[in-house]
């Protein structure tokens, strides 16, 4: 078998020879590892490439990551550990690339920009918003695969002379291997099988999952977003009020023991609210009762729910004396719960019974305790268990005492169990659609509600166990049956990993099962978390030191707050008391500022003219005052009136009008016929 060798610049080197072992390991998770051992001198070093053909005739390329050369007496042993050449994408950095509403192919093309890799086959539906920020190209490709639920594969082309690799393509497929065969491979594992390693997943089975999506934006009192996020969305309002999905069958097997809990099934009564036309679903006695007994209101009594209620009483012209529901299919030897609402005066009631479709001596009827009325709508709940052979029942409400009203009757199967679901959480912080979140949570529950198991053995062992291993390929579908579980575990698995001996195919080791995380991987994750703790210890110690150094200062600040708290509270109270007035002042300012600004502009524009006017007034004030005095003197001397013109001189006044009069301190004189005649005063 040829292993062509190239340096990191794709220049050919001497082929690797003297090979004593070669193992090519590939997994559906993208793992590709080549381990080769050869004898003799070799100049192959770290970063060189080995190109070879796998057992299915496909070209593969691996990068030497750990070469080892050791001498054993008379010979040199070369051991090479190589990784699939996709690993080189981990050495190319992406600073910031963003995809908005992009397909998987578009995301992959953007991720591979600037590399020597091309886009191969890309499957998958839909689009996504996906950002590559401060990650390697390989990490970006892995995030695409995770987002769209795809698997990573690589393919290669060489030139005709096999002197160099001409194309490296990266593909994203829904599933590797054969998933459509009418006769898939089948493997059954039992207690008597030898040579097979079975590994059960280290994580627990979950039979109920709560689903949570993106956090809702936080808002202030006015409904404005504050920039933060609060409670995450769930799908309870589209899932019958339940924020979870559950697999009851899985709970019965993998649940947890606990106190008994009862749950109610669906309502089995037709027309329990009496809303159907003519009381459909019920038989009333007398038969004509549906005409007057189904009422919308009676005095101040209105239905408990909906628009119609049933009135029962002894007055057969307006009330029903009996109400019998249509037959209800039930299970034998099963507990049921009857619930109804009644309204009647204290002491008024009726009888209730359940009739079954079985004949039992002395009777198969189940008599229930009557409802207790309190003068308002009262809920009555009664439980009963059907006969083992019963398959149908009818509910009878009859023999009313006084007038009572009936509404909203329901009958549900009661399931009581001491087995509780094993609960877990599914989160998708980017999901904003509740239906999408519900679908994703259901898919995750399907995956996590059964144990994940893998089986590992060589080809011959699997063949002896009855499994067809001819032409087996990575990812092929396998039907698994494990009889060591109770009950038998039956699930659909895949060929998870092939550890192929390139020199002797019979020694190839196959791992089949459903996808699992081995305990060692879980332990490795725990170690990584511990490493992060150790890495952060320095920062945390620094924080601790800062607290120690600043404790007294922060204590002083705290004391200052205590000392000034009352004064600051008074300030806050003053602010609360004056806020309205200050707000009104602000409103007035906002409302009048335009007018005031216009006044200021007018004043600024006219001020020079007004200043000139002021100076003119100041300069002429003395002359104008003198003129005003003279004018006043003349006004005193001469006044215009309806009786003529009057001249004043001291206490004497002479009036020239239709007549000439003279007035002084002694009286008034009139000029008549050439002389002044004194006027006698009139009373």
UniProtKB/TrEMBL annotation:
GO molecular function: hydrolase activity, acting on glycosyl bonds
Tail spike domain mapped to chain residues: 91-258, 424-523
Cited InterPro entries: CenC_carb-bd, Galactose-bd-like_sf, Phage_tail_spike_N, Tail_dom
Record key words, sorted: Hydrolase
CBM-cenC domain mapped to chain residues: 267-398
Name of one Pfam family that matches: CBM_4_9
Signal peptide start-end: none
Keyword Acetylation annotated: no
Name of this protein: Wiskott-Aldrich syndrome protein-like protein 1
